[in-house]
Amino acid sequence: MSMDSPKTYTIKNYGCQMNVYDGERMAELFDAQGMTPADDKNDADIVVLNTCHIREKAAEKVYSEIGRLGKTSRSPGGPMIAVAGCVAQAEGSEISRRAPTVDIVVGPQAYHNLPQMIADVTSGKRAVDLDLPGLDKFSQLPQKRKTGASAFLTVQEGCDKFCTYCVVPYTRGAEVSRSWSALIDEAKALIEGGAKEITLLGQNVNAWTGEDDTGTMQGLDGLIRALDRLDGLKRIRYMTSHPNDMTEGLIAAHGDVEKLMPFLHLPVQSGSDRILKAMNRSHSRDSYLKILDRARSVRPDIALSGDFIVGFPGESDADFADTLSLVRAVGYAQAFSFKYSPRPGTPAADMDTQISTDIMDDRLQQLQSQLVADQSAFNSKMLGKTCEVLLERPGKLGNQLIGKSPWMQSVHVLAPDLTIGDIVHVEITDSGPLSLKGEPTMRAAA
Predict the structure, then answer these.
(1) How far is residue 392 from each of residues 27, 237, 388, 426, measured CA to CA in Å?
(2) pTM to 2 decimals?
(3) pLDDT tens digits, 143-156
């Protein structure tokens, strides 16, 4: 049964910053087709669920959302439903079997084909595209970028690391890097659109390589140094990095490039060498700590962030104790921690040493207690100090704006005379585990 061509859309992103970027590009694609964002997300003609498959609960949330939409027929009154992203890539036709109300299933490397897929659905077909054609999509997406004060820029996709718990190599494909010229052009467009800060994204962002405009091969540090020379750009960040690709040149950039913010997100996942080997992480506890030491040697005030998995198959009490001791040794400013979640098709899912939920719950509670204490301690050191804050969005209170410090902390300020996009000097007056409060003292130099 055919459907009317959609005129309004809603995109709901799950998971990582890469999905946020992809969601932004889908919106630009729809805008170029003459569609507009729905004023009320519940009244959209098409709903795109841009999914994450890293953890089991994330996938289940998608199916719950499909059920909540409550589409039971292809009548003109019901929305067109598209499932995009990594759940789409991983589960494919299983989505149609489990949720027959879904009209479109499109993987993360094929969403540039959404206009044709929508046309297929309007003619009465169900549309599925799970191709992994590398970076073809970027050349077929609208070139003009919509942006705010802070913008994402995907420079690299895919992963060749094959950690035994992770589905990314199967859902995003092999590591591929976008070209130097494409990235410089997109960065310039973002700056022209008002971006003061650009965050470079990739599954393994520091695996990016490419030839510059002179034909010289560059790593991520070379790209960062080129962005540093662009007028109007005030801040540069990057994530997510892999320890195996943390080069000396990239570490040196943290000391040399003023626009590169003093923040490093470098997942370790475990403090136990035995578990790291079982995870196929290709780094050791000691090699990881040495990277952090080198980063601190060139930028003593750098804020460190990481990812942790507790309850990986076979993790003993001693292994978990190694993780806690590493956390205490590092003193993370921020960190993300999760219980191990078996993903179908990954080697770890078939290991016969799975950890009970009760043990994982207890370990996660212990770990998060330490991480929160460390984050609170890091934030409390800001009390009475003044730092530059890039104002990014309105807060919940009147005249309140929220921005980021150089160290990635959210900072709330009452600023009736300031606007989003301003970079201001803020004196920090209060701190908590998740954010800071402060009083603006003056605008930073343009």
Answers:
(1) 20, 15, 13, 14
(2) 0.88
(3) 766 788 999 999 99
